[in-house]
Amino acid sequence: MTGPGDPPEGAPEGVPGGGDDEYRSVVFDESFVRAARLQEFSAQERLDDHTPAVRRQGPWRRSRGSRQALVLVLLIALAFATAVYMGVRNPYRSLAERDPEPLRSTVVPLAPRGAVPGAAPAALFEHSPAAHFRVGAEGVNLPAVHGTENFTDTQVLAALDAAKEYIIRSSLDPEVLTGGTVRPVRVLVDSYQLEQFDRSMDRPADDGRHAATGWLVRFDASRVALADPQVRVRGSLAVTETGSSRLEVTGDHTFVYALRPAAGQPEGDGRASLFTVRREVRFRFDRDDLRDHQIEVVQAYVQAGPMSCGGDTAGQLRPLLAGQDAGKGRPAGTDPYAPQRSTASLCGVMADEAQPSPPRGSP
C-alpha cells in the first residue's frame, strides 16, 4: 500500500518509496494544479465564447487607465484653450494686429491785420467773441452717452472721459501751457505712440509728425506769461464706432488765453492781450485703451493767433502781444516750378472780428 503522499501509480522511479519526507512538500497534488489554472482559458472556451486568451485585468487597472486617458484629454483641451486665449489677449501681439497710427498734425498760425488790441483781461474777454464762453474744464462738456453696436454705454463713457481728460490736461494745465512739464499729458498717451511723443517734445520738427504743438498747447515761456489763469473754452465732443473693435472721439474746441509779457520782457505795451487756439483733435480707442485709460491721438488740426507767420511753431507757440503786429512775418514765397519740394509753412490771416474790441481808454 502506498503512503499517504504517493501518487496512485506509486513512487516515481529513483525516488525512495517511503522515505525522504523532505521532498513530499514540493509534490503538487491534483487540487493544487486545478487551482493554478487562473489566467488561460481552453481553446474550446475561446472559440465558443469569444473570450480573450487571458482574463481581463482587475477593475482597479481599468479604472486607472480610464483616469489617465481622461487626464490626457483634459490637458490637450486646456492647452488649446490657452493658445486661443493668448492669441486674443497677448499684450505682445504684433503691431499689424494693433494697427497703431502715428499722430498727424497741422499747426496754422493766424497773423493779425494790424496791431494786437490790449487791455485788462476782464475787459478783453467782455468785448470779445469769448464773452459767453465757460471757464476752464466747464467748457469741455460730454454729449449724451449711448452704447453702440459693439460697445456698451460704460465703454463709450470711458472713451469720452479719457478724451475730455486729455483735452483738459493738454490745453488748460498751467504747468503744461508754460512748458514746465509734459507728464500729465504723456501718461494718457497709448504706449505705441510714446516714442513719437517723446521725440516731439525733445526734438520738435515741422514735419507733420513731430510737432510738440500738435500734442499740446505750449507757449514760449521766455516771452509770455498767463495774465489770467481762467482760460475761456467752448467746444464739443462726438463719438463714433469705426469698427467692431474701435471707437473714435473727435474734440473741436476753442481756447482763449489772456497773456502778458513775461517778467523782465519789454515786449508789447505791457497790457494783456488775448490769444486764441482752435484745436480739432481725433482720438482712437480699442478695448485695451479703454481698460488701461490710454488714448491713441490720431490727428490734430490747430489754428492759433495772433502770431507772425514766419515763426517756428513746432516746439512752442510764440504769440504777438498787445501793440505788436505781424510786420513782414510772412512765409517765404513758393515757386511751383522749382523741382524741390516746397517747405513753406501754412499761414492764415486772423479776421478782425476774431479780435477783442475793448472801449478806448480801457486799462
UniProtKB/TrEMBL annotation:
<protein>
    <submittedName>
        <fullName>Uncharacterized protein</fullName>
    </submittedName>
</protein>
<keyword id="KW-0812">Transmembrane</keyword>
<feature type="transmembrane region" description="Helical">
    <location>
        <begin position="69"/>
        <end position="88"/>
    </location>
</feature>
<feature type="region of interest" description="Disordered">
    <location>
        <begin position="1"/>
        <end position="23"/>
    </location>
</feature>
<keyword id="KW-0472">Membrane</keyword>
<feature type="compositionally biased region" description="Pro residues">
    <location>
        <begin position="1"/>
        <end position="10"/>
    </location>
</feature>
<feature type="region of interest" description="Disordered">
    <location>
        <begin position="322"/>
        <end position="363"/>
    </location>
</feature>
<keyword id="KW-1133">Transmembrane helix</keyword>
